[in-house]
Write a structure and sequence with these properties.
The protein is built from two helices and no strands. The longest helix has about 40 residues, at about 40-80. About 85% of the residues lie in helices and about 0% in strands.
């Protein structure tokens, strides 16, 4: 595996997960727009924002931890290889 393949894979997986969440949210918004009156729609949109906000935050935190671990592994792998300037 290349030096940055793990980091690249993590970022690709993150993009896939976030895009999937965003697409599901858009689908739910479109469904709500088609079936609800303006008053109920406002409440539903607020509910969807809150619900998906939690999902996005969880996903960002999960990938932030994975990325931090991968970067730490790279740093350990590079330890004592270079002359400090």
């Amino acid at each position: 595996m290349g030096k940055f393949d793990e980091i690249r894979r993590i970022m690709k997986d993150f993009k896939g997960d976030v895009d999937g969440l965003a697409n599901r949210k858009i689908e739910e918004i479109e469904t709500a727009k088609a079936r609800l009156n303006p008053t109920a729609l406002k409440e539903e949109l607020a509910s969807l924002d809150a619900e998906y906000g939690k999902h996005f935050e969880f996903t960002r935190n999960m990938y932030r931890e994975k990325l931090a671990a991968a970067v730490a592994d790279r740093r350990r792998g590079n330890a004592n290889k270079y002359i400090k300037g």
